[in-house]
């Protein structure tokens, strides 16, 4: 077919236009494919990112889960506590007010009316020492500003302003007593919900207030008094050189220094029963012997002349162990104890003779005579001195530490029935040994 000139031009234009359209379609197809590829690539990257984020999230959760990392969490918390303890001694001192007297002593036996952090640190060796202790109610502008107020319950409340008239929510009222329940001078049924803490000789007190403690010489750890003790094994044979050197002069059997003659425990009757079998010398107004009370001569007599000393308590109450025992353990004499405590929680095994381990006074006396005539058995009662020593830690150190403890101060507690806690099933009036 033949085309005119114009037709040829038109045909060429159409052919060119077709090529351009085809090229445009082809370019559009490539663009669409490229866009789809980029979108697919982005989707894959997004999925990878989500997977990675999820993985990192799972790793983070597992790294902080207690069931997998309890040791790391514990170490981190202990480090936090250590850092907190370091910072505590640079913080605001906590204030402790002694509300009433301690047996007519307004200072509770301390050297001054007001003691500061230096005393807590240098005299009491408290690890946390930023505290002020005072009997001056005007030490701070208001009573409710004191962090803790101590009430000695063996003394009546003062007649004027018997208790603080205002109390702050975080203020700790402390029930403080070293005497047994029979010496309580308060009507505790009226004081329910009043006390937040207890400070006494009882092992379940919030603040333990013992007369003495036993410390392991090698480790420095306090072993007793405690609800659960871990004593070393008693050796089969032991020879205490210092006691052996005194042995020849120990010709007297037993001594007892006492001024309170009639007691709830009836200890005076036990002593009288033992006198039927042993030579017992009773010093003070309850007996026929005397020595200067303020002199060291009495204690020296125990070292040089006597084999046994009667550490008899005036009440048979749980955990009630007084200075009578610890003073004797500082001497070269074997204590014979009579009280309501489980002595394994207070003194090393085979360091004292417990009267209540025997059926009657005659049986106890027979054992004392046996030990008195067998020096090798007598010496074994002093084995503990190789491994333990008597020490003391003030409960005011523990109180100061608690007042600085954020976790403790966030804890809420109160003794809703302090009478039941203090007096319920704590003392008995019948002994296990017959006399």
UniProtKB/TrEMBL annotation:
Residue intervals of the Fucosyltransferase C-terminal domain: 247-421
Superkingdom to which the source organism belongs: Eukaryota
Alphabetical UniProt keywords: Glycoprotein, Glycosyltransferase, Golgi apparatus, Membrane, Signal-anchor, Transferase, Transmembrane, Transmembrane helix
Membrane-spanning residues: 42-62
Main localization (coarse): Golgi
GO molecular function: fucosyltransferase activity
Membrane topology according to the record: Single-pass type II membrane protein
Subcellular location: Golgi apparatus, Golgi stack membrane
Record flagged with keyword Transmembrane: yes
Ranges for domain Fucosyltransferase N-terminal: 93-212
Top EC class of this enzyme: transferase
GO cellular component: Golgi cisterna membrane
InterPro entries: Glyco_tran_10_C (IPR055270), Glyco_tran_10_N (IPR031481), Glyco_trans_10 (IPR001503), GT10-like_C_sf (IPR038577)
Pathway entry: Protein modification; protein glycosylation
Record flagged with keyword Metal-binding: no
Its EC number(s): 2.4.1.-
Family: Belongs to the glycosyltransferase 10 family.
PANTHER family xref list: ALPHA-(1,3)-FUCOSYLTRANSFERASE C-RELATED (PTHR48438:SF1)
Protein name: Fucosyltransferase
């Amino acid at each position: 077919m033949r085309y005119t000139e114009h037709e040829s031009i038109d045909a060429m234009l159409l052919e060119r236009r077709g090529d351009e359209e085809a090229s445009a379609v082809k370019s559009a197809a490539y663009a669409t494919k490229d866009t789809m590829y980029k979108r697919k690539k982005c989707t894959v990257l997004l999925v990878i990112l989500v997977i990675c984020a999820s993985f990192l999230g799972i790793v983070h959760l597992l790294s902080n889960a207690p069931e997998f990392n309890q040791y790391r969490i514990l170490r981190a918390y202990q480090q936090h506590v250590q850092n907190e303890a370091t910072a505590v001694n640079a913080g605001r001192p906590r204030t402790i007010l002694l509300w009433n007297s301690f047996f007519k002593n307004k200072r509770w036996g301390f050297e001054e009316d007001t003691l500061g952090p230096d005393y807590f640190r240098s005299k009491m060796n408290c690890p946390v020492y930023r505290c002020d202790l005072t009997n001056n109610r005007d030490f701070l502008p208001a009573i409710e500003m004191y962090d803790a107020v101590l009430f000695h319950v063996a003394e009546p409340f003062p007649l004027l302003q018997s208790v603080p008239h205002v109390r702050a929510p975080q203020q700790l009222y402390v029930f403080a007593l070293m005497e047994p329940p029979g010496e309580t001078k308060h009507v505790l049924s009226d004081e329910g919900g009043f006390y937040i803490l207890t400070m006494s000789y009882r092992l379940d007190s919030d603040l333990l207030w013992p007369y003495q403690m036993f410390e392991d010489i090698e480790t420095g750890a306090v072993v007793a008094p405690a609800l659960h003790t871990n004593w070393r094994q008693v050796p089969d044979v032991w020879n205490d050189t210092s006691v052996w050197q005194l042995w020849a002069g120990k010709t007297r059997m037993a001594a007892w220094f006492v001024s309170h003659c009639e007691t709830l425990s009836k200890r005076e009757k036990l002593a009288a029963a033992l006198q039927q079998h042993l030579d017992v010398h009773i010093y003070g107004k309850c007996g026929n012997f005397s020595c200067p009370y303020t002199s060291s001569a009495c204690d020296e007599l125990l070292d040089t002349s006597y084999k046994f000393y009667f550490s008899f308590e005036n009440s048979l109450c749980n955990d009630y162990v007084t200075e009578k025992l610890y003073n004797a353990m500082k001497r070269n004499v074997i204590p014979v104890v009579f009280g309501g405590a489980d002595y394994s929680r207070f003194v090393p095994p085979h360091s004292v003779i417990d009267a209540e381990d025997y059926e009657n006074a005659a049986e106890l006396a027979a054992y004392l005579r046996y030990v008195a005539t067998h020096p090798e058995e007598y010496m074994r009662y002093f084995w503990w001195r190789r491994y333990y020593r008597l020490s003391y830690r003030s409960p005011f150190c523990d109180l100061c530490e608690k007042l600085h403890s954020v976790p403790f101060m966030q804890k809420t507690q109160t003794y809703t029935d302090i009478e039941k806690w203090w007096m319920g099933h704590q003392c008995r009036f019948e002994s296990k040994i017959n006399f």
